[in-house]
Amino acid sequence: MQAKGAKGESVEQGTVSASALQVTFYRQREANIIIQSLKAAESLLILGDTGSGKSFLAAQVQSQLQKEGYLCVLVTQDVPKAQILSITSCLGIPDTNIEGEKLNIPQLQNEVLIALEETSCFLLFDDAHRLTPLMRYWLERLHSQGQPMALFANNPPAEGIFLRLPRFTLQPLPPKAVKQIILATAQQLNYQLSNAQVSQMLAYCGGSPLLAQRVVKESYLKIEPEGPDHHQQIDITPFLVALLMLTGTVRIIGIGLNRTSLYIIGGICLIFVGIIRYLVYRLPLKNSRKRIL
Amino acid sequence: MTGITHIIFSATGTCILLGTADPMVLSVAGLMGLLPDVDTSRSWSGQLLKPLTHYLEKHHTHRGITHSLLASIIIAIAALPILLLHPQIYAAIVLGYTLGWFADCFTKTGVQGLYPSQVRLVCPGHPKYRIATGSKAEYFLLAFLTLILSLFIWINSGSGFIQSLNWILGSAFGAVEQYKQEGGQYLLTVHIKGRNVQTQQPVDGLFDIVQDLSTHSLIVRQGDAFFVAGTQGKLNIETSSIRVIGRQPITFNVKKIDFHDKLISDILSKLPMDAYLTGELMIDNEVPPITTPVGQLSTIQAQTHGRVTKLTLTSAVNKDVLKLTKNSFGSGSIFVRHVQPHAANS
Question: What is the predicted ipTM?
């Protein structure tokens, strides 16, 4: 529920700032790829971490396609019935049968399948990794029918429709873009930021527009940021430990040269490195995909 | 990290890696440790170099370009002229700078060590265990680093890490190693604790090192008495601890003398009386019996074969050899080692 709220907010924010503050849309190249692929009746899977701007990109693709006069539905995270209904209402399919009874999900899915054989409509699925199996099987049927669609997902399972589609991953935004998002968010909050503050905030974002907005809000609320949540980092602990392990070569040199003191020093170093290694590997690893801390 | 932590971190790293305690080198390294933080106006170096800081803040991420291998390489190239003048200062500049940004790996946000890649290097992986600037953990780290720095300054200003360890262990091999390294420049005085193997007397006193015998034994002297001291081999004194406590600068000469059928006293009297002789002498007559007190090393061994006596010398004092070979003709091949303490320092 919380995740959904955050997601909704980020989309809304992005749209507002784009229109009101003329923040450039930084993923135009990606949007073009998606649009061209859809026009060529090809489907695509777009991967990206939480907050990398998938929802914003999806909304942009939809609005650009609609501007060009294409029929395009953006299916967002919701219960399956609502998701299907958002498509049927766009295609003008009635959600009742001749007797006036409400159709159930499989019936609606069939109606859509039939309708899409004749009508050309692009389907965009945001948060596709959260789609229920029922919806995913239906997507496979749509796909085999040749229906062009774009799925936006974060770490989806390697099976079914997710394996079938050609895919690309959204790269982190360049620092310039993140900086503009930070400035735009601050402007919305009427919050003055110095260059020093902006450059410090950038260190927490790692090219993620969502984190850029969050960091500004945290700073505005005078909350000390806990640590970066982005994945643009490498844990160098193993390399450091390996480097320290090299001090063990002193021991070998000591044996080779018959220098007892080098042998002893090398041995002591190795034990210290062993202790450091033991302590370091006792520290919990951050697994931010599952838990916040 | 605060400025002071950076200074101490860079100075400590340089002190350990270069094995120096030169205050000039360590201060240069410490100050260079401040330089990477020129990218924020909150730092000391940022206050000092305002225009540069202003530019960096406007165009770069904090702990970005200045905290990278690229910046280290640029510094290393820019400082090349110093390499010619003073290599150790140059090493301190490059090391101090690199350690300066490397220390920031341990902070919450990490560093862009591989700039222009935007990837940040962190250690450890969990942000909770990384250090926030000005936090209590940082002051703990600072105290710990200061302790390490003081320890290594003390070690490096003495005789270095290895010898300090040997001194603590009081091992015979340590004394042998130090003799091998410094025996040519210094007369080493050792404090030996142990026992005399032959007389079973406890030994606790000061000796001068004469020469090394093996990796674990030495010949030492106390006045005119010579001993083999160590932990392995044929010994007079088995040491439980042997520590070098005094170093006296010396001039040290070794020369080889070969002679055939000459009056030995003619040759030996030209040599300093306190020179050490090592080698073999064949003389044409018998020598009076050599008496060495129990528990000491006899530096002269005599073997008589008919009319010929063979003298085997192991760091024997010239004066003693001369006494034995008075009026004798003989031949031999000996090494003469003369150790002369510097008058000014004695």
Answer: 0.77
